[in-house]
Design goal:
This protein has 74 residues and is α+β, with helices and mostly antiparallel strands. It has 2 helices and 4 strands. It has one domain: 2-Layer Sandwich (Alpha-Beta Plaits), CATH 3.30.70.3270. A hairpin with a 5-residue loop joins strand 2 and strand 3.
């Protein structure tokens, strides 16, 4: 199962990843990072298809999408 990982401290809250995700896996958090920005967060990981559109859209290179989590069945 693919899963996106967001580096919250790199996020500047532009929301491009939210707009790019066709499955609404990512939303903006109500929490603020150390830079003072509301950051993107994964909210619906089970819907992720692994398309990586969120990672491509991120201007801060703050998102990685991995093929499966450690411990997931092959």
């Amino acid at each position: 199962m693919p899963h996106p990982q967001i580096r919250h401290e790199r996020c500047k809250g532009c929301g491009l990843c939210v707009d790019a995700c066709p499955k609404h896996v990512i939303q903006m958090s109500r929490k603020i990072n150390q830079q003072g920005y509301f950051y993107a967060d994964v909210v619906n990981e089970s819907e992720c298809t692994g398309c990586k559109l969120c990672a491509v859209a991120c201007p801060d290179v703050g998102i990685d999408v991995y093929g499966r989590k450690r411990g997931d069945p092959k």
